[in-house]
Amino acid sequence: MEKTSAAERVYEVVRAIPKGKVATYGQVARLAGMPRAARYVGQALHHNPTPIETPCHRVVFSDGCLAEHFGFGGASVQRQLLEAEDVVFVDPMHVDLASCRWDA
DNA sequence: CGTCTGACACTTA
DNA sequence: TTAAGTGCCAGAC
Question: Whole-angstrom Cα distance, residue A22 to residue A82?
Answer without folding.
Answer: 8
